[in-house]
Structure formats: structure tokens, C-alpha cells
Amino acid sequence: MYGEPILLASESSRRASILESIRIPFIKVLPSIDETIFDNLDPAERVVALAATKAKHGKALWSEKNRSKKVVISSSAKKPLDKNALDQKSNAEPRYVLGADTLVAFKISGRWITLGKPANELEAFEMLSMEAGKRQTVFSGLCLLDMVSDRCYPALSISEVQFAPMTPEEVSWYLSFGEWRGAAGAYRIQEIGSCFIEEIRGSSSGVMGLPIHELYGILHASGYLDS
Asked: What 3 state SS string does 12-74 have?
């Protein structure tokens, strides 16, 4: 079932962990893009557009062969492959690159208010204070880019998360764990953040940043699972 390693165009440790958990081998590339370039789009369009941009940048990084600074090979993701398969596939050129993007949003007076990754702890405090006691929508977009045909296989996951009320002291306590760093909405549901999550409607892996059901769909549609 497992093909050659895919390129994961993401710095997210959560996405890497999800790929490892479903035994998809990957090589991590670290794209650097301006994530504000699609701020004029609604959240659903924005996350898919950003995912596609990350995938394309990941392709460019791989083409440059800049492995010393931009590429990190994930050995743990390759554990499910037997040694012979690993030896053969690790020498093969990856054909697919996966880009992903996630954001949190509230709809207020018919307009979406979006929350990305906080720049600092103060911004994280403000985000969590806004989220406390409210229901939010989490958008996760994917793009699996076939680097041979240059075709993008897009996918979108939309979930709802109900936050429990939080006092300022609870917000500060949660921030002390540092989970806000690099996390859309300043929290992680799979760790200490779950203390304050009352309900999730939709994809828990999508809220974490990489919806497994949608990922499987595009891996299948692209032919990757047949490789």
C-alpha cells in the first residue's frame, strides 16, 4: 500500500506525526511563504490556496536539491517499510508533494474573523480569550501536487470546536506549556489544550492540521497508493 516517500511541505510537527501514525513515508521540506497573500479570500478558499502554494514551493525546494538546510528526512515515518523496500524507495525521486494549511475562524455579523498562528504569547492570550466559551470553525486545506504532471489534488476539511469557558488565570496556565507556538488559534487539541475542548464536530485530525479521511482520498485519487 505504501509508495515512495512523499514530500511534506510543512514545518508542523503535528502533521509529521499524523503521517507517521498512518505509516506514510515522507521527506520534510520547509517552505517559507507569505501566508497573508490570500487574506482577501474566504477561509475555505484561503486554506486550499495556501496549501497549493506551499506544495509548489516545496517542489521548487526539492528541485534545488538544497537538502543541507531545507530538507529533513523523516526516518521514523519509514519504519513500516521493510529494509529492502526502504533501500529501493529511498533512492527514488519523490513524485508527490503535500501542502497543508489550517486556520480558525468565527462568523460575526456575516463576516469571517480568522485566527492564524499567534506571533507571540500576548497574541496567543488574546486569541484564547476570544475563543473561550465560544464555538469556532476550523478549516484545513490540502494540496497533493504531482510533480510530474503538475496537477494539484485539493481537499478541504471543515470542523467545529466548542471551547469551554476559561478564566484569565486558566489562559495563562495553558500558555505556560508553550503549545500556542506554531498552532492555529493558539491551542492543540491532542495535548493539554484538550482540557478546554467540550466538543468537536467533524474531523479531529483536521483540527490538528491534517485531516486523515481527506488525505486518504487525494492519495487514492492521485494514484499514489497504487505506486
From this structure: CHHHHHHHHHCCCCEEEECCCCCCCCCCCCCHHHHHHHHHHHHHHHHHHHHHHCCHHHHEEEC
* CATH assignment at residue 61: 3.90.950.10
Active site (annotated) includes residue 101: yes
Give how many domains the chain has, as a whole number. Answer: 1
Per-residue pLDDT of the chain (227 residues; tens, 9 = 90+): 466 899 999 989 899 999 999 999 999 999 888 888 898 999 999 999 999 999 999 999 998 864 454 445 454 444 433 333 334 444 567 999 999 999 999 988 888 999 988 999 999 999 999 999 999 999 999 999 999 999 999 999 999 999 999 999 999 999 999 999 989 899 999 889 999 999 999 999 999 999 999 999 999 999 998 86
CA dist., res. 86 & res. 78, Å (int): 7
Q: What amino acid occupies position 172? A: S
78 domain residue, yes or no: yes
Of the residues 39, 82, 101, 226, only one is catalytic, namely 101
